[in-house]
Amino acid sequence: MDATYEYLVWLLPAAAEWPSWLVVATITALPALACFMFMSLGPLIYVYAERKVSAFMQDRIGPNRVGPIGLLQTLADTIKLLFKEAIFPKKVDKKLFVIAPILVNVGAFMPFLVIPWGGRLQPADLNVGVFYVVAIASLSTVGLIMAGWASNNKYSLFGAMRSAAQIVSYEIPAMMILLVPVMIVGSLSLQDITTAQHGGLPNWFLFRYFPLMPIAFLVFFVAGLAETNRAPFDIPEAESELVGGFHTEYSGFFFAMFFMAEYTEMFVISATATVLFLGGYLAPHPALQQIGSVPLGWFWMWFKAWSLVFVMMWLRWTLPRSRVDQLMHIAWKVLLPIALVLVVVVGGLVLWPSTAAGFPWDRWVGWPLTVIFVGSLLVVMLRAIAWSRRRTQELASPARQAVTP
Amino acid sequence: MKRWLEDVWEGFYTVLVGMRITWRHLFTAPVTLQYPTVKWPLPPKSRMRLFMKFEDCIGCGQCVRACPVNCISLKAEKRPADAPPIWAANGQPIKLHVAVFDIDMSLCCYCNLCTYPCPTNCIYMTPEYEFATSDLTQHLYRFAKKDAVFITEDPKKKAAAAAGPAGAPAALAAPPATPPAKPAGA
After folding, report:
1. Cβ contact (<8 Å) for B23 and A391?
2. Which residue has the higher pLDDT, B58 or A24?
3. b/e sequence A313-339, b meaning 16+ C-beta within 10 Å
4. In this complex, is the C-beta atom of A53 within 8 Å of any C-beta atom belonging to chain B?
């Protein structure tokens, strides 16, 4: 609250003269409003991006009819969903049926409270930040199970049960991995975790204790995928097996709420991973932290989280859905042992005086790895474009030429 | 332990291989053909909607007999003896008055069998395939016309006259290369 007050005074020096009730109202309402706008309008962009990315990955065009290059497609879909009738099937448990999507949304939206967008740009700097994110984000699973149970439909219940099994498997490695950056920093506050990584890209936790922390990041990312019910771990909604899983019976606005929650959760998990491993709102190089007097923290946070969201989409359109037993295998036999070993080893390294600040080679690893990663992506991209050009010319033979009437 | 590590590495590595493929496809050109605005060209002998040129029909009913699904209904009666003689475009005299010539395209199986026996080539398939309607009865095309203008002069004599002393047999009238977009009775 104090940090937000200082920020307000920095933004509006006149606020120092305001009566206390107005100040309190402002510093509580403004971040809430900003977060709400961000969260409720975000899915419009996520869904559009997802559809476009999936289309391009499948050599299609994607939505391109509503508005320029289909930009208004999700807006039109949202309006359609809002005006559609919310159908309550005959034997649903009405109270739970209504509460479930709300609960899912609460679980998806509440973590925004502690996500830092800049040194002071954070709705609330809770000293239990990481714990809070984990606890609140798990609420949405309760919502999913509630939805499945209230629907009074076998497919919904299957979806809910799968969701329960999934959360039990995945929360544990995810929580274990959360401990690793927390142990390094010695604080649960997301703000402290971010500031502990200052000094540019090589100081991010992703490149600390070199082979260890990248593995930790991968484990957390995979567990995060499962937590958001994204492919390849979207078995609770598995549309080819369970109709729609837990949201089979939902329609209209309630269905839209589930959708909104899913995409918001994607962003939340990505933002959490960003704060824990990718330096949160810190720029890759300290010189890029601000341009003139304009702080760019919010941009870097947004950019990194969005990159991770993109990777999630990328994975979704790459991998087929895993079976329930495969998911259990990955969670209990692969991720959990790795997470346990990492917690013990990194804990020991943090305690050991000569490695408390990382391995000696850590600062030489960050930039080369980033360059190799981005470079390989660029190489594949350029080769794909060249190949595509050649193929387009081949297809331009008269027999296959399209005609415009 | 070694086996486990190999499995984990293989899982990780194969995911990377898949991601490389999708990343490559992210930058390849889409293969979509945006149908209503752009269309594939049709092969020259495409069999789509049937069309019948009423002015050339002699009412022989061979197409009706050839049709395996009975989608053509024809009703013809003898022209009165005092009626002026008329001919089809290829010189066949029309001796029957065709009162009804209906083709139900909702029954048609596009087999093209009706076009082969036609002595005057007046029934044929057009490359027109966008004729979906909201009402099935609109697929019943009525080709019989009350105000049809027939050829009242024998085309064979006319062609012979036009060829003149050279005496070369005139080419028979072929069905038009580009049929009208919509049949008259639709």
Report:
1. no
2. B58
3. bbbbbbbebbebeebbbbbeebbbebb
4. yes
Single-letter code of the amino acid located at B76:
A
Residues on chain B touching A51 (C-beta within 8 angstroms): none
Q: What is the pTM of this model?
A: 0.77
Of B20, B30, B41, the CB nearest to A380: B20
Is A10 touching B (CB cutoff 8 A)? no
Is B40 close to A403, i.e. CB distance below 8 A?
A: yes
pLDDT at A250: 85
CB distance A194 to A281 below 8 Å: yes
Using only the alpha carbons of chain B, give its radius of gyration: 28
Q: Which chain B residues have a beta carbon less than 8 Å from that of A403?
A: 38-41
pLDDT digits (tens, 9 = 90+) for A185-241: 888 888 888 888 888 788 888 888 888 888 889 999 998 888 888 878 888 777 777
E-state strands within B93-176: 93-94, 96-104, 123-125, 140-142
**Residue A353 vs residues A97, A187, A198: alpha-carbon distances, Å:** 55, 19, 21
Looking at per-residue pLDDT, the higher value among B31 and A307 belongs to A307
Chain B environment of A59 (Cβ under 8 Å): 25, 28-32
Residue of chain A whose alpha carbon sits nearest to that of B37: A404
Lowest-confidence pick of A7-16, A202-211, A316-325, B102-111:
A7-16
Pairwise CB contact (< 8 Å): B27 & A218? no
Question: Three-state SS for A19?
Answer: coil
Between B9 and B163, the higher pLDDT residue: B9
Beta bridge partners of B170: none
Residues 6+ apart with CB under 8 A from B135: none
Domains and CATH numbers, chain B: 50-159 (3.30.70.3270)
Q: Which residues of chain A does B130 touch, with a Cβ-Cβ cutoff of 8 Å?
A: none
Whether the CB-CB separation of A59 and B29 falls below 8 Å is answered with yes
Domain boundaries, chain A: 84-360, 363-394
Mutation target to probe the B interface, by most B beta carbons within 10 A, among A318, A322, A334, A336 is A318
Write down how long chain B is. 186
A326 touches B at CB < 8 Å:
no
Q: B31, B88, B78, B18: which is closest to A395 by C-alpha?
A: B31
